Queue: 2 jobs
Job 1
Amino acid sequence: MAGFRFRCTECATPYDENDVRLVCAACADKQEPGGVTRGVLEVELDELPTNWPQAPPSHPDFLTAFLPIPSAEHLPPLPVGGTPLVAAPQLRQALGMPRLWVKDDTRNPSGSTKDRASLLVVAKAREYGYDTVAAASTGNAATALAAVSASAGTRAILFVPANAPEAKLVQMLSYGATVLPIDGNYDDAFELCLAACEEFGWYNRNTALNPFTIEGKKTAGLEIAASLAPEVPDAVLVPVGDGVILAGVAKGFSDLDRSGLIDRVPRLIAVQPEGAAAIVTALTEGRETIRPIPGAQSVADSLTVEAPRNALQCMNVIRASGGSGVAVSDEAILTAIPRLASLSGVFAEPSAAAGLAGLDVALEEGLVERGERVVVLVTGTGLKDVPAAARAVERPGVIAPTLEAVAARV
Amino acid sequence: MAGFRFRCTECATPYDENDVRLVCAACADKQEPGGVTRGVLEVELDELPTNWPQAPPSHPDFLTAFLPIPSAEHLPPLPVGGTPLVAAPQLRQALGMPRLWVKDDTRNPSGSTKDRASLLVVAKAREYGYDTVAAASTGNAATALAAVSASAGTRAILFVPANAPEAKLVQMLSYGATVLPIDGNYDDAFELCLAACEEFGWYNRNTALNPFTIEGKKTAGLEIAASLAPEVPDAVLVPVGDGVILAGVAKGFSDLDRSGLIDRVPRLIAVQPEGAAAIVTALTEGRETIRPIPGAQSVADSLTVEAPRNALQCMNVIRASGGSGVAVSDEAILTAIPRLASLSGVFAEPSAAAGLAGLDVALEEGLVERGERVVVLVTGTGLKDVPAAARAVERPGVIAPTLEAVAARV
């Protein structure tokens, strides 16, 4: 790594690393709809690798070459990323898409893409001298911070809505984090985390606020690109809640584009549930800003946000890539869980299976051609939300232990 | 790969690959306690690599070099194995063991070590021309077979006790397997699966019966060895139910020992729950055979067997390695879940956390020295059994969204 600076994704103001922690001072106070963050900062590295790193994508040295840290030793010791790009022949055949891949990010240590962000955030927290990192989250981001912090010996304080999913809550508690179930919704938890970080001097990992969350998630894009190089995918489908994972994937590709290692950024296609489709609606209607969706609801808990906090940057990178957005029903999301699992062997939580549901819509709407190189990012394991998966499968009845009973069933 | 034969682990009779599918005919009918399998076959390759394969352990070519298949193309397309060997500094410090590693097999596609066995079994099933593979299992083995079969387009028929854990049941259904919940226990399911395979001409993946389960699981041993080469671990702790994972890990090391790539097999230490410790008891008492434990019980569902089916071979390889066995209480297993998670970032199900609980006992009993090179195999993710993990953590109360409430809690 050489040096880097932050640059505001709205007004392009550059900031020295030591002058700012979260967002652009000039943009932060601009009027914004709902809880959309203004002045999101992006990391701009002075130098990027101009050859593919020798190490394979599963090796820390591969990612470190693109990250704003001096070396792999600066990363917490938990192995994150290096997840497989699965060429699932059954799924390809079922969809008639011979160049389709599934990026299986369920293989991360806590079971979701969020580990990528937490890895870099905790690395920077340690570099900056913080002993505590805090985050507000409905589940996966908090769990990821808990896992990475456990490995690094850093204290994690997690602000979660009291109704967070059971599996995620138990998992973050197991990692030894201080969990604060808040009598309120995600927005309440988010604001309280922000205030508490200022009050108590903690480092804030909140998504769409801490610039290293996007920078960490960009490793998903880097790995996809490295796995397919020298080819470049035509389109990548990404489930969108706050829009940070999509922005991260886009950043990976745009860094590679800047470095000359690829010649274009793939079309980024945002997938949102119909009940929480603020970004997709704004894209479809050609608007610059989103309209919040009061009482947003979906079976995909990680995607259920009223006002996507990273909406502005997310829409910018989608448009710049020639991409688009698609909305999917809860029924399509639930159906996609067993469909993805039974055709690829990848078991996804609702928010992650949404990518496959979105692919159906994208094909219907002509946003993706069947012959194109397409990647669907699967962001979290189905074991995070077994009750949702249970709704999508038929439960077979118990049989007597006899061959006759077996014969009758098969 | 060159050729290979099967060899009976009891009477050393060799068999041509085409002459046998499951166990040694000469030994199969010998008297055995409970359901212990007699005449378990081992794969004996004509040639083994004499140099470490160029590909890293995460690449299919690495494993294929040691497996009884012609090339990586013969494997189902689901990426299995290549899981990280985690050097967890916090855990090392807490235990005073500077050369301790955690082999994190929760990162396999269905979340457990069993994927390794299923990968090879389905590869061989396809080679032999079977379109259906069946298995009896309390959970992880069936789930693994379902996942791998889904990716390969092979039919999976799963015989599971009707009271199998919810998460595992939903997961295998999601993969599209034909699930037959049996009104009976694991033994009933096992016998029924055996009879059904004969009746209907299906390939049988049952553990301790199909020789490729051990051969597939040996990849865990190969990867541990490759990650530490040229050093060799002094001891490896493995949770033991039927004893097939341990036998598999041992096979990996003994293949490497035969090939000259390492100079000894590490001491293998079996960890069983106190309520299902047939192998550990037989080892401790110096007996050749186990005594079944009627009504065996433990919070670690995958380890709860009355008569470990692979007991004979498992005890043989442990003794040959200079290893031993330790029994752990259910309380120690449950406590080990948050301890492992909070000190390493690896979240394990009870059966998998048992390895860490066993390490405590092994240290106490002087079976392992703190300065030795020790690996603990973590066989399945904690997300497989969230209710168990929930029993091991304290649930924090809900707080009001105010800084005062936060201050009072932290």
Job 2
Amino acid sequence: MQQKTALIMKNDQWIYSKRPSERVSEQNYERRVTELSTALSQNEVLIKAAYISVDPYMRIQQHEIRTYDVPHPLGIVQRAGVVGQVVASENENFVEGDWVLAYSGWQKFAKCHASELRKLNPNDAPVSTALGVLGMPGRTAWFGLMEAGKPRPGETLLVSGAAGAVGSLVAQFGKKAGCKVFGIAGGAEKCRFLTDKLNLDGAIDYREFKTTECLAEEIQRTTGGVDIYFDNVGGMITDAVIPLIKLRARIVICGAISQYDGKLDKPELGPRLLQHMLYQRATIQGILARDYTSRMDEMLAIVAPWVKNKQIVFEETIVEGFDKLPDALNSLFEGKNLGKLLVKV
Amino acid sequence: MQQKTALIMKNDQWIYSKRPSERVSEQNYERRVTELSTALSQNEVLIKAAYISVDPYMRIQQHEIRTYDVPHPLGIVQRAGVVGQVVASENENFVEGDWVLAYSGWQKFAKCHASELRKLNPNDAPVSTALGVLGMPGRTAWFGLMEAGKPRPGETLLVSGAAGAVGSLVAQFGKKAGCKVFGIAGGAEKCRFLTDKLNLDGAIDYREFKTTECLAEEIQRTTGGVDIYFDNVGGMITDAVIPLIKLRARIVICGAISQYDGKLDKPELGPRLLQHMLYQRATIQGILARDYTSRMDEMLAIVAPWVKNKQIVFEETIVEGFDKLPDALNSLFEGKNLGKLLVKV
């Protein structure tokens, strides 16, 4: 083996330093330039980030309380999925220039163990899809809908956050499963995206409705009742939907983005609606991407060909600049992005 | 066939005449004495009520909104399960003196079609059990726990309304399934019943706690977390329990008695807690006795021997007097009864 000379490089990192009480911003991070030796241990791989992910779940983990995980520790790099390229490798499966998916967080460079990396073939699909339709959001959408939602042809599927990374995929998977699919989103542009680009059967702009009652009336008028409600948003939208469920409806709780800016610590008040579960003998099921990690290939076998053959729309909103990471994360809670939000380094 | 002479008898009925806005009382009924001819059509059976049931579900059906059923019509006899004796019969399977279960409502006499009746053997079990442990409440408890709760040995089952008709059975079925079982009930007497008579692993008197937080602390301290929550009560008790569920917990919504006095029409506010379903990948499932009607024999095959061999406690609170029916129904919402509440005619 040829001896390599270790260099000392500069790394650029966003350190999660202070828990947000409401919205997340740059105030919750410390930008740090550190030194990184290129010396690698056996099976270690050095990667350079190209696309860094911002996802709503990150804000859940920033809470002080235990949620589905212990809270994200302070003083370490913000955890995140990353698509990058191999710069150096001490593992035979990875060579310089390879594209990989890593979970290396908000930093420009990272050393990863080879076992933590998934190699990506840029000829199969744009590499950024490993953070979207062919990655965690895709897995969440696929298994959340298919396993918990159990769609049957002819049923009515309603998706909240339908123009988002997960929602836009759930909606399309629902169409492929033979459902009538309706989406709820914020703003006319997103609603046009749902009907015109995703070909959904209808879209509802929740921002046009001041009260839960008015929103509920519109949802009922548009959908005629709901067999499957795939919820990414929670709050008032879910309050409007629950009384409209049909017999043996399935409600999939995938997210509650309306509650992430502090309301997980101190719950908001909303109407008590669990009696509707009894009226309709319905179920509510919470799902999490990590429960299906081991079944990733099962999803890819079905969805990757759809991506390749352009049978599915996988919209991306790409923010340019490593500097923009905290802002980009915050923008998720303002509902500004269409599809998957990514930061290009 | 011998010709029978038809007589005209007096019948005594409670007519449901006015929807309650809060608690139900005599104000919501009209007492009516009507005439009833003993002449019977083919397959008709005349029965005389002995035990008339009052159940929480009746109050759900009294709401003006559609719940799990169309609202109980005004101007007809209050619907209810009844155990009675055959007075006259035009069906070969029933003879005078037979004990039967009917759904003939709050009236002293009723004509039923033979197909609506279930014959009871008073040597197998007290006939009143057909309205309790071997009837609708037993079926609800059995299938609700076994099908939706899916108990496994060693798991922790928490039951609200644990001293009631359904809850007291769920708790015992849970013990038989090998669970650690805890009950929540109102008052020291009920809690003693749970620990001393039902041999539960612990009991919590919710009335001793002024806030949801204090109640939650006590539940956590007592149970150590909940795998299965069988809910008959809803409201503040359920608010306290939901954040304490364990991974892949099952919440069974069997009832929400705390909400029945008007809060189904105008929902109360409570904390938003659906995010916990996501944290724990848990399910909430609503169940209803009627979904398991066709499987009644399956339940009876298991539970009837337990009743016969005194392996199960089936407490009854019996109110004497047809006059007392509205009061008895209302008393369910005051939490006064232990086990199944019946009115003896």
